[in-house]
Amino acid sequence: MNKIDYLILSSSFDYSTDLVCYRLLERGCKYYRLNRDEFKKHRLCMDLQRQRLIIQAPGIEYYADFVDLKGVYFRAPVFLRTQSKKELSLDEQLERNQWSSFIRNLTVFQNANWVNSPVETYRAENKMLQLCKAKQCHLQIPKTWLTNDSETIIGENVCIVKSLDTALFYDFQARKEMFTYTNVISCDDLQKYDLSQSPVIVQEFLEPKVDCRVTYVNGKMFPVKILFHDKGVVGDWRSQKEGLHYEKFNLPQSVMDNLCLLMNCLNLKFGGIDLALHNGKYYFIEVNPTGEWGWLETVAGLEISDEICNTLIG
Predict the structure, then answer these.
(1) pLDDT score recorded for residue 229
(2) Greatest extent of the chain over all pairs of C-alpha atoms, in Å
(3) CA of 48: how far to CAs of 17, 137, 176, in Å?
(4) Rounded mean pLDDT of 280-296?
(5) Which residues, 6+ apart, have CB-to-CB distance to 104 below 8 Å?
(6) pLDDT at position 154, please?
(7) 56 and 40, same structural domain?
(8) Residue 130: is its pLDDT beyond 90?
(9) Cβ distance 119 to 74 under 8 Å?
(10) CATH of the domain at 257
């Protein structure tokens, strides 16, 4: 049975995780990649008596000690957001529920360098908490409301409306998945909608603005501006499927210091931070503790995977 020093928790098709694994291989690190969609292919046992996780599959036998596992790269949701494409059987419901709990129980590796811990990830994914902490850390934030009553929005002509959490749905009749982007809407039009069933986040409309993605890894930052034909994108840049350009730039030191303060406050070693540059000021929009970054390493020539490995190794 082979001992591992690093555990990678991800899914089979995750380009960002692929990059981290390549870097660990280059450094000769002993790791195992445990994919969530392949749990049932393994025989897994947390042995409390021997204080170790045992991982077995055909031709594979590894273990990781609770006390001295060096690092865990955690690329997994802390709860299931997606709607199933079919009605789940009782067995399938049990499976999803209990494997989610298994993931949370991996926090027994208390001495490992987590990127990021599921406990801190769950806490930090709360958008209002992020914004409150960002304000305390002297970051500029847009005027924000979390509400299911549009009449509470006062003093704005145009606003940004977005879901409180990542909103993924499945339309059984059309047989397709749906994803909600951030929308620009007039406050007069917003008041025509009944929001009573579901709360939303409403923010002031920052325009003109340039979206900035800052990939944060343990105190180091990899900032890029997201441009469309050399200009900022009106509304949600993710709705632009083609023509986006990612330009590396330097953040002001004061903004970097405040972002470090925020990430330390949230106890996150990694995060995909979204900022908006508006009228010469950088506004904090949100941070995703399990945010995507692999495409940025490719298109912008950033060395994010190396820095993640440095953090795991400590």
Answers:
(1) 84
(2) 66
(3) 29, 40, 44
(4) 95
(5) 78, 118, 119
(6) 76
(7) yes
(8) yes
(9) no
(10) 3.30.470.20
Of the candidates 287, 312, 299, the residue with the CA atom closest to the CA atom of residue 123: 287
Residue 274 and residue 285 in contact, taking contact as beta carbons nearer than 8 Å = yes
Strands 71-74, 6-10: pairing kind: parallel
Backbone φ and ψ for 239, nearest 5 degrees, come out as: -75, -15
8 A C-beta contact, residue 23 and residue 309: yes
What is the span of the domain harbouring residue 168?
147-204
Are 45 and 110 in contact by the 8 Å Cβ rule? The answer is no
Task: Decide if 299 is inside a domain.
Answer: no
Model confidence pTM above 0.85: yes
- The values of phi and psi at residue 75, to 5°, are -120, 65
Token reading at 228: 């469309």
Q: Which of 192, 133, 194, 199 shows the shortest CA–CA distance to 162? A: 199
User: What SS3 class is residue 166?
Assistant: coil
Answer yes or no: is pLDDT of 123 > 90. Answer: yes
Instruction: Please check whether residue 192 lies inside any domain of the structure.
Output: yes
- Contact call for residues 265 and 271 (beta carbons, < 8 A): no
What 8-state DSSP symbol labels residue 138? T
**Matching residue, tokens 């590396």:** 248
Tell me the average pLDDT of the chain. Answer: 88
Specify the DSSP class assigned to residue 114: E
Q: DSSP assignment, residue 217?
A: E
Q: 71 and 217 in one domain? A: no
Question: Are the C-beta atoms of residues 277 and 210 closer than 8 Å to each other?
Answer: yes
Q: Given this model, what pLDDT does residue 193 score? A: 76
Give, for 309, the enclosing helix (H) or strand (E): helix 304-313
Same-domain status, 212 and 192: no
Q: Give the number of domains in the chain.
A: 3
Q: Establish if 180 belongs to a structural domain.
A: yes
**Has residue 163 been placed in a domain?**
yes
214 and 165 inside one domain: no
* Token pair for 75: 């690329």
The answer to whether residues 134 and 259 belong to one domain is yes
Q: Contact, 38 vs 85, CB < 8 A?
A: no
Same domain, 158 and 246: no
Tell me, yes or no, whether 110 and 192 share the same domain: no
